[in-house]
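TASK: fixed-backbone design
INPUT:
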């Protein structure tokens, strides 16, 4: 299996999920009122787990493809199918939502609760995973503007399509990046690249290189692709690189494109 999940994981009926969520949030409010907002998230997590039955903490979700492996950890699972993600941050931001959605999609759980303890008032919201793995592994491929690299083992397309057909789209961009670099080889890890402005060197920026003159970019955009491509071309213009191999992994369309300087 490409994704290894904890034993006993199950999808709850809507009524059971709502009841568990209500009970856990009652405890979360009580813990927040008692302890305040200045502790680490692990403290709050343990305090809640001690007060509720059938809680499992730090459940591993292992994503595998060939020799590549990456493990994520779900903060709290209640009743075998009600996931919770806890934060101790100034505010809930989009990065927190995306991280939790990634966990839900991997675990094939339809919804969960994101809770932030740092504020004077407890911040919480539902996160819903509306796409099944079957839907996420059904996508189209566009590669008419893509030119494979000539060096052996450096063609992105078969590498990326191989793990996408196992894992599906809509997941964390860092997962896709790490898997691609793993299969391309360590020599393609992040490398400092000289940046120029007005003909003068202004510093270095670390980029993924496929070769000494070609960079790799993987994105997970569903809109705004033209704007993002324009920015990639501007970045390329301020380097001595020749090209960028860009892969955008959208929900329904995976696009491979070679951009030249």
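OUTPUT:
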């Amino acid at each position: 299996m490409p994704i290894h999940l904890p034993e006993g994981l199950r999808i709850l009926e809507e009524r059971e999920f709502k009841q568990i969520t209500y009970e856990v949030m009652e405890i979360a409010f009580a813990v927040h009122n008692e302890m305040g907002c200045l502790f680490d998230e692990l403290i709050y997590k343990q305090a809640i787990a001690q007060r509720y039955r059938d809680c499992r903490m730090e459940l591993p979700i292992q994503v595998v493809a060939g020799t590549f492996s990456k493990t994520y950890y779900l903060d709290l699972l209640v009743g075998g199918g009600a996931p919770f993600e806890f934060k101790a941050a100034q505010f809930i931001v989009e990065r927190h939502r995306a991280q939790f959605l990634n966990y839900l999609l991997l675990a094939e759980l339809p919804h969960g609760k994101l809770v932030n303890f740092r504020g004077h008032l407890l911040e919480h919201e539902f996160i819903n995973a509306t796409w099944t793995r079957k839907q996420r592994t059904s996508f189209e491929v566009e590669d008419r503007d893509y030119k494979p690299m000539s060096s052996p083992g450096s063609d992105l397309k078969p590498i990326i399509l191989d793990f996408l057909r196992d894992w599906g789209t809509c997941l964390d961009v860092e997962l896709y990046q790490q898997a691609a670099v793993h299969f391309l080889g360590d020599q393609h890890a992040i490398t400092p690249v000289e940046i120029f402005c007005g003909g003068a060197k202004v510093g270095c920026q670390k980029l993924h290189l496929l070769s000494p003159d070609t960079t790799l970019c993987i994105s997970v955009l569903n809109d705004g692709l033209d704007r993002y491509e324009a920015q990639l071309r501007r970045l390329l213009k301020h380097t001595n690189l020749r090209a960028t191999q860009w892969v955008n992994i959208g929900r329904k369309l995976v696009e491979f494109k070679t951009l030249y300087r």
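COMMENT: The helical segments are 14-35, 41-51, 94-107, 133-136, 156-167, 173-184, 225-237.
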